[in-house]
User: Fold this.
Amino acid sequence: MTWYQQEPDVAPREVDMNADRVAKLSDFFRRAVEEQKLFWGAQLAVFRHGKKVLDLGGGWARASDHKPVRPDTMFVLYSSTKGLAALCMHMLRDRGAFEYDDLVSKYWPEFAHNGKERATITHMLGHRIGNTVGPDWLTYKQWGDFAQCARAMEELAPRWTPGEANGYHPLNYGFMINELMRRTDGRDCGTFFQQEVAAPLGLDSLFIGLPESEEERVACVYEAPADRDSIVEMAKLMGFTPDEEYFRFQRDIMFEEGLDPKDLPFPEWDNIFNRPEVHRVVLAGGGGIAAARDIAKVYAMLAQNGSWEGQRFLSPETLEHSIVPTNEADAIDRSLRIPVIYGYGWMLGHLARGASLRTFGHPGKGGQTCVADLDRGLSFAFLNTGQKLCRVHAVLQ
Assistant:
């Protein structure tokens, strides 16, 4: 079994971390990689006070031919991409491109249809518009067409009055954010992120819209069971009984097509998120691709109050505003059917053991977790190939 551990920037004690606990974390991760009970391959990176303390990984990036995970391997982020899109939005707000309580239609007039006339940017960032899934005609074959994606968001009628409730928007969050960025800045989310965040931070392994030249570095993703019995089992463990609307929601975040493996270059290509043409799409709700060290560095910058080596990316005032909850702590998410606390594009508080509402970031389908903790000056990113044998699959795309 392949395994690596890169040299850290500093020893744990230099950033007030317990060296024994860091070593235990490294050992625990290595055992999980070697046992391969949870995933085929994974990476983990940890920063404290702007210094990298851990950078390790291992396992298989592609199970069908035992392609190994290496330090330059990148993983599909799924919804952890949403945290990067949120950062881009907050940077634009800092520059005066909009205010959070502005109507979306102020910048995107065509959006004000079918009950979305009073929808605000705050509603959009907090998953409160109600454009959760659909329309059915918007398939992955149209994702790269910004005009089609915008039209789809315009024609949807929200499931509730915008602002009335929160309900997770798996991919539509990204379609709406991307179009709003194009309307207010002129650049799509992937271009803005590359020019304004990735390049200044010196990142070479984090993209929203993958260059074709980087394709060989991407690890495959694998789906956990998605049959009705598995969905029912998951829902019961989470304390509710699924209805047909919930089954539809889950079907919308399953990406295997059921093709004959003999017709594919690799069996993994049955999942559309393992295909190069999908990797190249600017999919701000779920298509980011990264190595753990690079996305952990982005959150390390945020944990440093929005600055890095003298360059400010986000004002302290906007950062503090971005982690104000947009819903009540006990509000049941109308898509996920569990309590989720949203800030302005981030999820708050429940992302890690010991987290507070000043712990923020975004998870992704299959177990991706990317987090910053402002009070601890801590960030980490755990990326993997998706749950392997677990019967209960992740609900976040």
In short: The chain has a mean pLDDT of 94. Residues 19-35 form the longest helix (17 residues). Residues 215 and 276 are 7 Å apart (CA to CA).
